[in-house]
Amino acid sequence: MTKQGDGFETRAIHAGQDPDPVTGAVVPPISLATTFAQDAVGKHSGFEYARSGNPTRRALEECVASLEGAAHGLAFASGMAAEDTILRMLSPGDHVIIPDDAYGGTFRLVARVFGPMGVEWTSVDLTSPDALTGAWRDETRLVWVETPTNPMLTVVDIAMVATVAHERGARVVVDNTFATPYLQAPLSLGADIVVHSSTKYLGGHSDVVGGAIAVNDGEVAERLAFFQNAVGAVPAPFDCYLTLRGIKTLAVRMDRHCSNARAIVALLAEHPAVGTVLYPGLPAHPGHDVARRQMRDFGGMVSFLAAGGEAAALEVVTHTRLFTLAESLGAVESLIEHPAQMTHASVAESPLAVDPALVRLSVGIESADDLVADLRRALDAI
Ligand SMILES: Cc1ncc(COP(=O)(O)O)c(C=O)c1O
Q1: 298 C-alpha to center of ligand 1: Å?
Q2: Which residues in 356-379 are b (16+ Cβ under 10 Å) and which e?
Q3: Is 43 a catalytic residue?
Q4: 135 within ligand 1 shell (Cβ under 6 A)
Q5: Does ligand 1 come within 6 angstroms of the Cβ of 78?
Q6: Which of 83, 125, 186, 220 has the fewest C-beta atoms lying within 10 Å of its C-beta?
Q7: Region for residue 317 given its phi and psi (left: phi exceeds 0; alpha: psi -120 to 50; beta: otherwise)
Q8: Which pLDDT tens digit goes with each residue over 289-321?
Q9: Known active-site residue 279
């Protein structure tokens, strides 16, 4: 149904989702069959066994590929399953460069699962070209970029990293979970592979765990699809349906996430209980200029340091009414959390450890005034 030149919102609603050819249903059916009839051996309609391929999953994969401007999309049971699949392209002795404030789960996967299997890794400040080239080895095959990062909101120049990596024969992966394809198009900036925790903004409603990959190179896509089938961390058809349903409203949700985040940042910037505010939309943010260049807007994630340190941070996260104290992010409801003891506990005592005074907000799409009043009350109380 979609054609070249269709806008983002059109593709979010229609890509991979033509009306069902049998019934005309305008929503792709949740296809539960685990196996598909064959007319003769090897002669089938494109589906054989549901781990290898499933019609609802294919709709999601085509939609994600379209949104990322990619030739190929792959869906997984979680963001970590998608990350695992990409890292399986490495062999013992290969070296991967990761950000020095990578998502804790990414760090854990690289350091504690692939590390013991012989994959070498270095964590560096990817905002610095010198740090990137300084960490380079003959065996470097992959640079793993996250931008903006979780939870420090560091912005990495994707085009710069891609230039450095490609000159040296390595591939670049971008975790686009925080920005989403609506705000940032990594493949158009030179990245080779885009990965998502679709649990977050793509799903958008805190009701489905999933992951996705988008890639242009056919050989890479084939290898990733081989691992997807061979390892089997595939999403259930119902999960694919929920994610597709979420994606339809991605653009309008992201616009509201961004404008609500701006209102929250304005409060934080003037409140005495708040130290540094981390938000790429602030002109003082070190990544502001790069973010302006490579993002449509600055996103719905905001972090800040409580002026009163860890004790104050732990206080504020329990004093909000609308901001729910919970892990995860990117859904319609606002969440607040303490990364050092919650989402990023897995990097405690590592070089990636998070400041215990840090508070992370996932700003939802409730009424901006209510969110500002809620957070102001909690900050006033500490
Ligand atoms: C930036 C980022 N990447 C990957 C993941 C992992 O995704 P999942 O929890 O869906 O496995 C997360 C989860 O929080 C994340 O924030």
Answers
A1: 19
A2: bbbbbbbbbbbebeebbebbeebb
A3: no
A4: no
A5: yes
A6: 125
A7: alpha
A8: 999 999 999 999 999 999 999 999 999 999 999
A9: no
Cβ of 175 less than 6 Å from ligand 1? yes
Please, what is the Cα angle at 81 between 248 and 50, to 5 degrees?
Answer: 70
Residue 339 tokens read as: 């990364």
Which residue CA neighbors atom 12 of ligand 1 most closely? 197
* pLDDT < 50 stretches in the chain: none
194-216: pLDDT as tens digits:
999 999 999 999 999 999 999 99
User: Are β-strands 171-175 and 140-146 bridged in parallel, bridged antiparallel, or unpaired?
Assistant: parallel
The whole-angstrom separation of Cα 312 and Cα 378 is 10
Q: How far is the CA of 105 from the centre of ligand 1 (A)?
A: 7
> What's the confidence (pLDDT) of residue 119?
98
Spatial distance between the Cα atoms of 153 and 103, rounded to a whole number of angstroms? 11
Q: What's the confidence (pLDDT) of residue 352?
A: 81
Indicate if 51 belongs to the active site: yes
Q: Note whether 68 and 247 are within 8 A (CB).
A: no
